[in-house]
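dude i think i finally got it to work??
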Amino acid sequence: MIGLAVSENAKDARRVAENLAAAQRYRLTKAYKIIEFETIIGHACIVAREGELVEKSDGLITCIYYPLSNTSFFEKPLEAEDLGKTLRDLDQFFSGAIIKKEGITLFRDHVGHMPLAYGKIGKTFAVALSRPALGSAARSLKPGHMLILDSSGLRTIRWYHPTPWAVDYSERGLAERLVNVAEKYFPDTVFIGFSGGLDSSILAYLADRAGKRVKGIAVALEGSSDHVWSQEAASLLDIELEIIEPSDEELLEAAVLLSGQLLEARLIDLSIGSIMFLSARRTQGPLVVGQGADELFGGYWKYERAFLEHGVERVAELMSEDIEEIHGKNLERDELAIALAGSQLLAPYLSRSIYEAARSIDPRLKLRIMNGRVIRKWILRRAAEILGVPEKIIERPKKAAQYSSGIQKKLRRILAGKR
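look at this
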């Protein structure tokens, strides 16, 4: 679904829906259709791409979802009263809507990997994939929630509650889950946003192990640590690598495009978004990224600082807060940047299997003191060791891509020169 509008007037609904499609024209990467449907709450008009909408005798179902499965999402029982159970049984990323005579139900996956936002445009209730298309007053549907609009009004229901798994807390159990996710989620050709760091290297290694063709894509300036290290890591993993060294003009073009779409465009958002955008322009399929691994396994420096100053309980609180907010702080920005390039975000670490297992793992297995220093993402490193990822990659400390690539420093200089 690209856009949905519900209004008392059929013409207003169609006008708003068409305007939403125009505002998200970068998403119209394949044939689409516009369908009108009358409900008791007003006239509905929906714009959806080919393969993302099914007309039924009593209404419409529209959904974007990944990975595509042998059993179509649309064959699942999606009656509103059973929707929560249906969604809980899915191990996919998705967002969508059910439009029936008695009302409309919106739904979104457990972590907010797939975007979905709603708001009012005048007197018209409107829904879009990109929140900026609806304006600054729009709200993102919370991950793991349904929104129901019917004759009784508007209400949200939480369908997803993280279920603690009786997991094998060992690194071997995590390694097995990583293998399973790679086999399920990766297409035949895997394009990976690749810095040579632990997260992207594990994904590249798993893709190669699963018999996929792997192409790493690094955005880095010559002389930066990412420029040097991504080549060495790609050689260690024996994968294909393309390094993009953006010119001032290319980087400014990406930043201007993003700043026109992002509601809040901080320098860090423009830097990371530009890396995503420039990488995604080189793909012929989803761009696979390591997003989520730091929040789930304790990769950020702030976790180490909290660990040393306040103990593991505070670290657990910070990680939980960050993963609950990852859709608004990271995923929606990254998904938008990649969509603007005509591609699709794919963050396998956020799959239900890894997400729920990671949230069940004791934080003491994520940050550990070894030989007098804190090892972040300890259990993920040990899982990588079991899988066979080269030791030199496993033991390399984390570096934030916006800094290690040289992109943020260069972009700051470019933007300062434009003022």
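Residues 182 and 206 are 6 Å apart (CA to CA).
im so relieved honestly
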